[in-house]
């Protein structure tokens, strides 16, 4: 199974790329994590809803066909590590690709939210978008390690 982490934003600092790669490379082929970056629209003092809508269309277009769509959203359901592990187990059994969608500074469009199968809130805190990539990659790896009784996860 492939998990596609699709986020608005490109040209990340080296520390972000290194952090993401560190966890993504630890995952086995059965649970491959792939990053797809969506170039953000130029931010002007214009219509922010239009910007979110256009970025949302590109997020959805970047998801593989038939993908199980999971949005990262402050209004989503907060998941504990065990919840992430249960979700990962479901996704593995489902056999469909998974797309984890991270919006830009304006958030996710209504269209993306309506098409999502699940909504995951990482925290009630607001994180910088680049950091979210690392947190999600680490949590996916932690969930996999929990399912496989790997010593990485110690409650």
What can you tell me about this protein's structure?
By secondary structure, this protein is an alpha/beta fold. The mean pLDDT is 93. It is globular, with a radius of gyration of 15 Å. The chain has a 5-stranded parallel sheet with strand order 2-1-4-3-5. The protein has a single domain, classed as SPOUT methyltransferase, trefoil knot domain (Alpha/beta knot, 3-Layer(aba) Sandwich), CATH 3.40.1280.10. Strand 1 (2-8), helix 1 (14-24) and strand 2 form a beta-alpha-beta unit. It starts with a strand and ends in an 8-residue tail after the last helix. It has helices spanning 14-24, 48-62, 81-94, 110-115, 129-147, and strands spanning 2-8, 32-38, 68-78, 98-102, 118-121.
SSE layout:
Blueprint: E1 2-8, H1 14-24, E2 32-38, H2 48-62, E3 68-78, H3 81-94, E4 98-102, H4 110-115, E5 118-121, H5 129-147
Parallel strand pairs: 1-2, 1-4, 3-4, 3-5
Kindly list the characteristics that best describe this protein.
alpha/beta; 155 residues; Alpha/beta knot; 5-stranded parallel sheet; 5 strands; 5 helices
Pairing-aware structural class of the strands and helices?
alpha/beta
Instruction: Return the CATH topology.
Output: Alpha/beta knot
Span between termini: 26 Å
Low-confidence segments: none
Shape: globular
Secondary-structure element order, as H and E? EHEHEHEHEH
Radius of gyration: 15 Å
Number of domains: 1
Provide the β-strand percentage band: 15-25%
By CATH, the architecture is named: 3-Layer(aba) Sandwich
Q: Could you give me the name of the CATH homologous superfamily? A: SPOUT methyltransferase, trefoil knot domain
Tally the helices: 5
**Integer average pLDDT:** 93
């Amino acid at each position: 199974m492939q998990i596609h982490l699709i986020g608005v934003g490109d040209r990340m600092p080296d520390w972000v790329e290194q952090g993401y790669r560190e966890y993504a490379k630890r995952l086995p082929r059965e649970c491959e994590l792939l990053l797809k970056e969506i170039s953000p629209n130029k931010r002007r003092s214009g219509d922010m809803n239009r910007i979110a809508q256009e970025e949302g269309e590109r997020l959805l277009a970047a998801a593989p066909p038939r993908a199980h769509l999971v949005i990262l959203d402050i209004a989503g359901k907060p998941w504990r590590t065990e919840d992430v592990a249960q979700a990962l187990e479901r996704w593995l059994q489902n056999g469909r690709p998974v797309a984890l969608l991270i919006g830009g500074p304006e958030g996710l469009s209504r269209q993306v939210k309506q098409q999502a199968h699940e909504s995951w809130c990482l925290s009630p805190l607001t994180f910088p978008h680049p950091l979210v990539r690392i947190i999600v990659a680490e949590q996916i790896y932690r969930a996999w390690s929990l399912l496989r009784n790997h010593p990485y996860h110690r409650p």
